[in-house]
Amino acid sequence: MQSGPRRRFRLRYLLLLAVAAGAFVFLGRHAWREWRWRYIVIHHTASDAGNLEYYRRLHKEERGWPDIAYHFVVNNGASNTVPGQIEESNLWKERSRGFSTRNTYVNTVGIAVVMVGNLERHAPTTLQYQSLVSLLVTLAREYDIPPERIIGHRELQQTKCPGQHLDMAKLREDVARELAR
């Protein structure tokens, strides 16, 4: 059995290696949770009523998902909410992937934002739109997502979502203008 300086050196080396491995695992998990975001995908609920809890319950009961499909809900003032109020889901708090598209890659690296309302029939309220732009600017800055990677659900797959009354080109322009300030 070894003793003296060689043994102490090996113990220090093993301890340093264990600390480095733990830091790597911790930082790797943190990096994945925080730095993986590449897209922001915009949706609408296609219904003028509801809030985060309503859609969470709907998605759990009808679709069998563990939570609501989206990371953020931008309310229109219905269902005891304030127009433009932003609700953050548990998916975002835990940085979990969403269920908002049929594209697994986009669900994994995309932040899903839903506007409450049927934007196929009418435009969002002014406060709701302003809150959406503000949220997108914050997320784009925080996660280095350029405006061209803010996409409507219909730009990914055959759907009308987020509705004809949400002009995605204008939304990207408004976000770009705010980012340039």
Write up what this structure looks like.
- The protein is an alpha/beta fold and 181 residues long.
- The protein has 2 domains: 1-35; 36-180, 3-Layer(aba) Sandwich (Lysozyme-like).
- The protein has 6 helices and 5 strands.
- The protein has helices at 5-35, 52-63, 90-93, 104-109, 126-143, 168-180; strands spanning 39-44, 72-74, 86-88, 110-115, 150-152.
- A 5-stranded mixed sheet has the order 3-2-4-1-5.
- α5 (126-143) packs across α6 (168-180).
- The longest helix has 31 residues, at 5-35.
- It is elongated and about 80 Å long.
- The termini are far apart.
- The model has no long low-confidence stretch (mean pLDDT 86).
List the helices and strands and how they pair.
Blueprint (H helix, E strand, L loop, with lengths): L4 H31 L3 E6 L7 H12 L8 E3 L11 E3 L1 H4 L10 H6 E6 L10 H18 L6 E3 L15 H13 L1
What is the ordering of alpha helices and beta strands?
HEHEEHHEHEH
Q: Looking at this structure, what is the CATH superfamily of the largest domain?
A: Peptidoglycan recognition protein-like
Uncertain segments are none
Order of strands across the biggest sheet? 3-2-4-1-5
- What is the helix tally? 6
Number of strands: 5
- CATH architecture designation of the largest domain: 3-Layer(aba) Sandwich
* CATH T-level topology of the largest domain: Lysozyme-like
Specify Rg, calculated over alpha carbons.
22 Å
How many domain units? 2
CATH class of the largest domain: Alpha Beta
Pfam families: Amidase_2
GO biological process, one term: peptidoglycan catabolic process
Organism: Leptonema illini DSM 21528
Family: Belongs to the N-acetylmuramoyl-L-alanine amidase 2 family.
